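#onboarding

Welcome to the new folks! Below is a worked example of what a typical request in this channel looks like: someone posts a single protein sequence, and someone else replies with the predicted structure as tokens. Don't worry about understanding the tokens yet, we'll cover that in week two.

Example request:
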Amino acid sequence: MSTLADATTEKLIRACRAQIGDELRSLTYFTPDEAEHLYLRGELERGDKLGFIETERRGFNLQRTYN
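Example response:
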């Protein structure tokens, strides 16, 4: 289940590809509660392994703490 509308996802992918070009490897959207790959370059494996998100979520907690 996608957390973003398809049109929004496509706009984000187009904007990132326009700025980064073929070097874009992945685009991941996450909130404190959910995470989803929006784009993965062909040679990368899609999977549920979004472990790096936990590190980023710690940043959310710090921002809430120190607002």
